[in-house]
Write a structure and sequence with these properties.
3-stranded antiparallel beta sheet; two-stranded antiparallel sheet; 42% helix; Ribosomal Protein L22, Chain A; alpha+beta; 132 residues
Length: 132
């Protein structure tokens, strides 16, 4: 690794130490379905976001709720104290495409139709309003 790359990598590592986040990788649902749920809680206070996810009818909301609880726990672990009500917010959250499993489904007259089983990666950042 070159010197400049090493310095840049060290800077990125140091920046991540001050950010509080959680990642969920290879979730077996399409990114489009996950983005509906993620868009509901972007920018919300964490307790309100947990309530929204708890009563959402979308199947993906269970996974996002688990991820949000993990991000809150990461914040509490790094700060060595419990989060107060109204202190933490979902600062950033985004969904990326994961690996796509390609399958074939039998079709009439000897043909085959393609099936794409999509997956996604979700990254969630929490923080305080003053620490944006």
């Amino acid at each position: 690794m070159g010197a400049r790359k090493k310095i840049a990598a060290e800077k990125r590592k140091e920046a991540l130490k001050t950010q509080y986040f959680a990642k969920m990788r290879n979730v077996p649902s399409s990114p489009r379905k996950m983005r509906y749920v993620v868009d509901m809680i972007r920018g919300m206070e964490v307790n309100r976001a947990l309530g929204t996810l708890k009563f959402s009818s979308k199947a993906a909301s269970v996974n996002v709720e688990k991820l949000l609880r993990s991000a809150i726990a990461n914040w509490e672990q790094k700060n060595e104290r419990k989060a107060e009500d109204g202190e933490l917010f979902v600062t950033k959250i985004y969904v990326d495409c994961g690996a796509t499993l390609k399958r074939m489904r039998p079709a009439p007259q000897g043909r085959g139709y393609r099936i794409r089983k999509r997956s996604n990666h979700v990254t969630l950042f929490v923080g305080t309003k003053t620490n944006d």
